[in-house]
Amino acid sequence: MRVAVYDTYVVxxxxxxxxxxxxxxxxxxxxxxxxYGHEYLKRVGQEGQPLTTKECRFCxxxxxxxxxxxxxxxxxxxxxxxxxxx
Length: 86
Known about the structure:
InterPro entries: DUF2024, NE1680-like_sf. The protein is α+β, with helices and mostly antiparallel strands. Helix content is about 30%, strand content about 40%. It has a single domain (about 1-85), classed as Roll (NE1680-like fold), CATH 3.10.510.10. It has 2 helices and 4 strands.
């Protein structure tokens, strides 16, 4: 499965910056990607933090690994956590 990767930086309520990728099927509109990002922020207790096209930008496309593809089939997207996400 070919996926699109969106590089995302969100400032948490405590001021620490979260860096994560939102990975979606390649044909998703940017508005849907932002919706997935808001769902993730709500799930990790960061609801209401700014997440717009300024914080979330298209980066590249790639071939998804089996784990990422499985997650996308289950929920529509995959979050790859990098910095400040815990």
